[in-house]
Design brief:
The protein is an alpha+beta fold and 234 residues long. Among the domains are: 92 residues, Ribosomal protein S16 (S16 Ribosomal Protein, Chain: A, 2-Layer Sandwich); 63 residues. It has six helices and five strands, in the order ββββαβααααα. Helix 1 packs across helix 3 and helix 3 runs antiparallel to helix 4. The longest helix has 91 residues. About 7% of the residues have low confidence.
Length: 234
């Protein structure tokens, strides 16, 4: 029976994660498997890999063939390299102590590289967050300046409106008080009133009754007078 080490897909659409399994090569990708030896989650940065190292080396030792993705994962974790060193022991080229020393040295170097990569990612994330914070801070400061400027303009306009209203009220008050003061100022004094009375021309005197010339007698009156004189003579 040909055995493969491959990935079995799980998770939801857009966010998959995988089981690392040893399965019959004739089985479906997501079907039955012989043994699950790890997990692989590509959604994190860096990707999360959990591997049963000894079982992975065992399956490699018995001839299980990994797929390309599974081989990359096993190589990243050192299972491929450990299998290669164990083959050297089987051939008599290496001793177990030499294999352990070589693998420990490789593992230490690998861990330092992985840690450097993790630190680089963290620094990049921190820098990105710092840049975003600085940009937001600059935007907030600019917004605060605009708000302060608008408020100062509104305050200046309100002060100008208040001054204009106060000036208008004062002007109206002056106009209301001005006529009374002018009348009091222009009112003639008592002596001035006497002078006005003295300078006023006296009314023309009406002629007395005796001075009024008698009205001319009419002819009818004369005739009446003559008739009365004749009656007296008779």
């Amino acid at each position: 029976m040909a055995t493969k080490i491959r990935l079995q897909r799980h998770g939801k659409k857009g966010k998959p994660y995988f089981h690392i399994v040893a399965a019959d090569s004739r089985a479906k990708r997501d079907g039955r498997y012989i043994e699950r030896i790890g997990n692989y989650n590509p959604n994190t940065n860096p990707a999360t890999i959990e591997l049963d190292f000894d079982r992975a080396v065992h399956w490699l030792q018995v001839g299980a063939q990994p797929t390309d993705t599974a081989k990359a994962i096993l190589s990243y974790k050192g299972a491929i390299y450990k299998n290669h060193l164990l083959k050297g022991i089987a051939k008599g080229a290496l001793t177990e102590d030499q294999v352990n020393k070589k693998f420990d040295a490789w593992l230490s170097d690998k861990e330092s590289k992985v840690q450097a990569q993790v630190d680089s990612i963290k620094n990049a994330d921190a820098k990105a967050k710092a840049d975003i914070f600085a940009a937001e801070k600059a935007i907030n400061e600019e917004r605060a300046k605009l708000i302060a400027s608008a408020q100062s303009e509104l305050a200046a306009e309100a002060a100008a409106a208040t001054e204009a209203a106060a000036a208008a009220i004062a002007a109206e008050k002056e106009e209301a008080d001005a006529p009374a003061e002018e009348v009091v100022a222009e009112a003639p004094a008592a002596d001035a009133a006497e002078e006005v009375v003295a300078e006023t021309p006296a009314a023309e005197e009406v002629p007395a009754a005796e001075e009024v010339p008698a009205a001319e007698e009419t002819p009818a009156a004369e005739e009446k007078a003559d008739d009365s004189s004749e009656e007296e003579k008779a």
